[in-house]
Specification:
This protein has about 200 residues and is of the alpha/beta class. It contains 5 helices and 8 strands; from the N terminus they run βαβααββαβαβββ. It holds the Pfam family RibD_C.
């Protein structure tokens, strides 16, 4: 059986919306897009690089897959993240996407997110990594399908925006596996689901 790891960039007040660019995700009139890049540093790059090197296949919700396909789906000279993502098998969970031809090595998982991902998790193959895709992560978390989290907790609050855990969810316990502070105050915390 595969494991599922989720990597989420978030603020102290739990906002995960619009990390990278002002126009990345303006749903609900979100005015704070692009809050994340000023916190990037060598420590974050190294830690994310180590995680990407261990990642197997990638798992996305439709919106994040479409955004990543536009940003990362073309070869970016010298960028190791682009090369890894383009090479990896990418599963996109969607009930509306007709095909995944827009990004090489992409496969659409049609139907209910929890059911299709649970079935994929039961198959043999590389472990699965989710980057972003907050709605998908919430659904998978609610079904107990997320095995571990890497949370990049940024030292700011936004007061508005989509939060990682907006709705009530099940009681879930995790163990802190590691924590690394960056030079710009981001805490990279890795949690693994605790054994019942």
């Amino acid at each position: 059986m595969r494991t599922i790891s989720a990597t989420m960039f978030m603020t102290l007040d739990g906002v995960v919306q619009g990390l990278g660019r002002p126009d990345e995700d303006t749903r609900g009139g979100f005015p704070h897009g692009g809050w994340g890049p000023r916190y990037n540093d060598e420590v974050m790059g190294r830690e994310l690089g180590q995680g990407m090197a261990q990642a197997g296949d990638l798992l996305f919700g439709r919106r994040t897959w479409q955004d990543f396909a536009n940003v990362w789906g073309r070869a970016i000279d010298g960028n190791p993240f682009s090369a890894l993502m383009n090479k990896a098998t990418k599963y996109v969970v969607s009930t509306t996407l007709n095909d995944a031809d827009g990004w090489e090595n992409s496969i659409v998982l049609r139907g209910d997110a929890v059911e299709t991902v649970a079935a994929l998790k039961r198959t043999e193959g590389p472990d699965l990594a989710v980057n972003g895709s907050a709605a998908l992560v919430r659904s998978l978390h609610g079904a107990g399908l997320i095995d571990d989290y890497t949370l990049l907790i940024h030292p700011l609050t936004l007061g508005a925006g989509t939060r990682l855990f907006e709705q009530p969810g099940p009681l879930s316990e995790f163990e802190l596996i590691s924590s690394v502070p960056t030079t710009k105050g981001v805490l990279i915390a890795r949690y693994q689901r605790a054994e019942p």
